[in-house]
Design brief:
Helix content: 55-70%
Radius of gyration: 28 Å
Structural class: mainly alpha
Strand content: under 5%
Oligomer: single chain
Number of helices: 4
Largest sheet: none
Length: about 120
């Protein structure tokens, strides 16, 4: 039983492992790589950041976006949600208070009329 040679489909002496991964992932997004590693990595980073913004939790599937960066993006996204930010709810709280007062007044008026 001999040792079988390893066949790399994207093996090129000028392309390292990271660049191969960048090329594969860009192609998966439907983007044609430029051949310049830094430009391709920046393009992939932009695409992956968009995916992070769409996701609801930290994932290990991204090559250029670290888990720490994902957490920062999610924190920023959650900061703008009204559930987590009471300053955003100010108008809705005022509206609820006004509605309650209107209901109270309507009940009081009905009691006076004897309805």
């Amino acid at each position: 039983m001999g040792i079988q040679p390893i066949n790399f489909s994207m093996h090129n002496s000028n392309v390292d492992w990271e660049e191969q991964q960048i090329i594969k992932r860009l192609q998966a997004y439907g983007v044609t790589p430029t051949g310049n590693k830094s430009i391709d990595k920046a393009t992939l980073h932009k695409l992956e950041v968009q995916d992070v913004k769409k996701s609801s939790h930290v994932e290990n599937k991204f090559l250029t976006v670290s888990p720490e960066e994902q957490e920062k993006i999610h924190e920023e996204k959650n900061k703008n949600k009204s559930d987590f930010n009471p300053d955003v709810n100010v108008n809705s709280m005022d509206g609820a208070k006004l509605l309650g007062e209107q209901l109270y007044l309507a009940i009081q008026m009905k009691k006076k009329k004897g309805i």
